[in-house]
Amino acid sequence: MKALLMSGVMAFALLGAAGGASAAECGNVTIASMNWQSAEVLANLDKIILESGYGCQAEIIQGDTIPTLTSMTEKGQPDIAPEGWVDFMRDIMDKAVADGKLVYASKSLSDGGVQGWWIPKYLADAHPDIKTIDDALKHPELFPAPEDPSKGAVFNGPAGWGGTVATTQFFKAYDAEKKGFTLVDTGSAAGLDGALAKAYERKEGWIGYYWEPTALLGKYPMVKLDHGAKFDAAEWKRCNTVADCPDPKKNDWEIAEVDTVVTKKFSETSGPAMDYLKARSWDNKTVNTLLAWMTDNQATGEDGAKYFLKNNEPVWTKWVSEDAAEKIKAAIK
């Protein structure tokens, strides 16, 4: 995680005492909760911290990436998108920031959204020579295909996913078929999860497409394989993500930028609350672990946020002022 310093929080607190911005200026705030687990828990985390630590009146509203970010750009609502996958509408978002409508407050996920080909940690530990996709493809015997164990298998996602298209193209680019592998269509998200979990529980070989942050990688430690190539944006757009492109090249997987996006108005009127949002960022390992706990305990986003605050004090207290931290600790007892 990029460590985001919080000296601005303390400085702002001192200014408030001298008649500058105060926590009361935060006022009413709307927070978008997207329809996936990590975004849901982050929205609830922001709600608790902004209300308990900074005196905001926070309301969570349901959203999704494109509708929420479009509404913020055009209507100035909601005030905060805690986990904005801005690459889905990069040109529009950058223009909205340049036009003074929106602000990128911080990197929600300091590592970004990470996709690629993964192998189980126990296999990586047992075979330290396997660090790249090419390394893994030298050993089809370690990744037996379910229908034909004489071949290796690369497990793919379901039809319709961008990651599925990219994996299919990488399968071509790395000559996986010639190296004794077959590409397995898992049919659905549940099928992909099930294949990974089954292999892990049996301590069998597995290689395939996955991403983080996710609950599954919090439960089953995996190692992402290096692509052995630098990221080439032009090649990524030309062929790695185009299903019918016949000649994909080796390439790294683009890391998705995931930002906390706020309206310009909120950034200018929220006082110290904005300093919290500028500082609040967590890494995928932290999120994976939290999501795994939520899944195992059938926890809601609010449950997950409270659990995180109670069990990760050294992490979140770096995001807030000392005064806010004490108020938050009192609120979650």
Give the helices and strands as they follow along the chain: HEHEHEHEEHHEHEHEHEHEHHHHHH
Question: Which sequence of strands runs across the widest sheet?
Answer: 3-10-4
Quaternary state of the chains: single chain
User: Which radius of gyration do the C-alpha atoms yield?
Assistant: 22 Å
CA-based shape: globular
Largest sheet: 3 strands, antiparallel
Question: Beta-sheet strand percentage?
Answer: 15-25%
Structural class: alpha/beta
List how many beta strands DSSP finds.
10
Helix content percent band? 40-55%
Low confidence ranges? 1-23
- Our measurement of the CA-to-CA distance between the termini, rounded to an integer number of angstroms, reads 28 Å
Tally of DSSP helical segments: 16
Average pLDDT taken over every residue: 92
